[in-house]
Every structure is written in structure tokens, then in C-alpha cells.
Design brief:
The protein has 14 helices and 11 strands.
Length: 353
């Protein structure tokens, strides 16, 4: 994951738009005062929204189709990017007065980068869910698309063949028997920050150092980790997304199994309107739908992600607060905190930097 300093974040970048840019005038209050009917009419007139997202490639089209059942006049153009690709792309475009994206959805550390760089604009959907107790987001940037949970995963066939202890928690991968046979994503700052908040800094760092000393296989993403577990190379993974593991465990139980630790490392995936959005009404309608009960139902049904809404039913093998208490990372790490945790995490794991 790219350190914030390397992105060249300029906190004044959002003000770089020319005074003649029509979208600049549209940012903010003028759309906040619109009625829902007028906003939807304006969105239909614009007829398009461009969405930068971290939704997996397999999930993007089903989400667009679900949205278009409700809003058939708004064409959605989606660009699927990894979490660490979105901030530099949006920031670079804004600096160059290239206003392409209307709305972005991504992991909270990357959304925080863009809020701090002032390349997003505040908007509060009328039907968004309340945040969990103890979590705060800046006003106007509280739209939650889904919750990400980090489970431990393994290949049951390979674990049995090699006589490995079945993982019950991350600590299992510090066992010498697992040396070199498990993966970890060295860019998973949200996961490490959850451990810090859950265990305290010193204990979390000590655990990560033990993992690093046990020769983990480094993977590029949580999805990459799960794919490798399914292939048996390596046999397990410490940073596996629960929603995807659940789906694969149902389809290929001999290749993928998973367990949720308690407390359960959890983080937010957020959605926000981009500053100088070329289709500002459509961007707001898209965000409105995504966080609404109807949109969240589709998020769960189409992708198996977890919704915060109490009126939406989640996969009980992934999310049950009575069984696994969420251990929330800070969704709005400052650049200094983010860079410090990333550097510390990579060094403790002996990961290439």
C-alpha cells in the first residue's frame, strides 16, 4: 500500500477547480436543499454516473443491474480499482482539473486519504444507517456500503494431509508447524489497526512480529490470499475476508474453511461524492440508493457483504455480534498515523517495502 507522503497529498487540491467549472457551483448546498423528487429528476436528466469502486470484479455488474432496476435512465460506468489505487487516481485527476469520477466507494483508510486531501464533497443521504457505537466519521462522509471482517482461513484437505493444527485464531499461525505455510497481506493497515485497538499497541506488535518470524507468504490482497488458500499454496491465510470465505466454503468445502476470531477485526467500506462531480445529482442518487434498505439488501444478496442496517439480514456465518464482538479499526487515520502503522506493520512482518 502506498504511503500517504508518496501520494503528494495537497490539502488545498479541492480548490483547484476553475471558477467557470459548472460542477463547482453544484458542489454542496444547492443539491442538499433539493427535494428527493427534484434530485431524482435532475439525475435522470444527467443520465450518467461514473463510479470508482473496490467492489470485486464479479460483483460490480450485479450491483449496477440492481440499481438500474430502480433507476433505468441513469447509466453507470464503473471502474474497478484496488483500494490503494483509488486515492492517487482521484487526487491526480483533481490536480489536473480532470473531473471524471462522480462517486467513490472504498475501504475507510483510502476514503480518509481523500477526505484529508479535500477531493471529496460532503453529502448525507436521507436513509443512511447509524454508525456503530464508538465510531465517528466526519459530517457528510458517513455513508457505509458494507463491513469487512478479517477471518482466518485454511485448506482443509492440505491441513489434514500435512497434519497441521486447524486455525482457531491468528495466533495459530505463530505455531512452528505453520512456518512458511500461511499468507498475510502486508498492506492490510485496517487489519493491523483493528489488532492495535483490540489488544493494545505493544501486544499487537508482538503478535505481528511472531507472525513475521514464522515466514509468512506475502500476498497482494485479501482476495489473492483466499485464492491461494483454495489452491493449497499456502495452506492457510491470516487476513481472509469473511464474506468471500463463506461463499467459497459453501461451494468448495474441501478447499476452503474459515473461522472468525473473537473479537473480530472489522472495518468499514465507505461511499462518497467526489468534488467537482460532473454528474452531481446522479452521484447523490447513486449514494442514496447504495446505503438505503433496498440497496443494502442488494449488497448482501449479490455480494454476501455485511450491512450495518438492522433491517437487512446478513450471512450469520460472517456476522453475528452476539458471537463475535467487532474490533473496529479507526476509519479516519491521519496521514501520520497511517504511515507509521504501515511502516511498523511491514517491518514487523519482514515484508519488502
Amino acid at each position: 500500500m502506498v504511503p500517504l507522503a508518496a501520494l503528494g497529498l495537497a490539502l488545498s487540491v479541492a480548490g483547484c477547480g476553475s471558477s467557470g467549472d459548472s460542477s463547482t457551483a453544484a458542489d454542496g448546498a444547492s443539491y442538499s436543499s433539493m427535494s428527493l423528487a427534484d434530485l431524482q429528476a435532475a439525475a435522470n436528466t444527467e443520465g450518467k454516473v461514473t463510479w470508482y469502486t473496490t467492489f470485486s470484479s464479479d460483483d460490480v455488474d450485479p450491483m449496477i443491474k440492481a440499481f438500474n432496476k430502480v433507476y433505468p435512465k441513469i447509466k453507470v460506468s464503473a471502474l474497478r480499482l484496488s483500494a490503494d489505487q483509488i486515492p492517487p487516481k482521484v487526487i491526480t485527476e483533481q490536480k489536473g482539473h480532470q473531473y471524471t469520477a462522480d462517486v467513490v466507494s472504498g475501504d475507510s483508510p483510502q476514503i480518509a486519504q481523500m477526505i484529508q486531501a479535500q477531493v471529496l464533497q460532503p453529502y448525507t443521504p436521507p436513509d443512511q444507517s447509524a454508525l456503530p457505537a464508538g465510531l465517528t466519521l466526519p459530517k457528510g462522509y458517513e455513508g457505509v456500503v458494507y463491513v469487512l471482517t478479517a477471518s482466518v482461513g485454511w485448506n482443509p484437505t492440505v491441513v489434514k494431509q500435512q497434519g497441521l493444527p486447524v486455525p482457531t485464531s491468528v495466533e495459530t499461525f505463530t505455531d512452528p508447524a505453520w512456518k512458511g505455510k500461511f499468507s498475510i497481506d502486508p498492506s492490510a493497515v485496517n487489519w493491523y489497526d483493528s489488532l492495535v485497538k483490540m489488544m493494545g499497541h505493544d501486544q499487537a506488535l508482538a503478535l505481528v512480529k511472531k507472525l513475521g518470524d514464522n515466514d509468512p507468504v506475502f500476498v497482494e490482497s485479501h482476495t489473492d490470499a483466499l485464492t491461494k488458500v483454495a489452491s493449497g499454496e499456502p495452506a492457510g491465510g491470516a487476513t481472509i475476508y469473511g464474506y468471500k470465505a463463506s461463499d467459497m466454503a459453501k461451494d468448495t468445502p474441501n478447499q476452503v474453511a474459515f473461522a472468525n476470531p473473537d473479537p473480530l477485526p472489522s472495518s468499514l467500506n465507505l461511499i462518497d461524492v467526489v468534488a467537482h462531480a460532473p454528474h452531481p445529482a446522479a452521484a447523490r442518487v447513486f449514494e442514496d440508493w447504495m446505503v438505503s434498505q433496498a440497496g443494502q439488501t442488494e449488497v448482501v444478496d449479490q455480494t454476501n457483504h455485511t450491512s450495518l442496517r438492522p433491517d437487512v439480514k446478513n450471512d450469520p456465518s460472517v456476522w453475528d455480534e452476539n458471537k463475535w464482538k467487532p474490533a473496529w479499526g479507526d476509519p479516519m487515520l491521519s496521514p501520520d498515523e497511517y504511515n507509521a502503522e504501515l511502516s511498523e506493520f511491514e517491518q514487523a512482518l519482514h515484508a519488502p517495502q
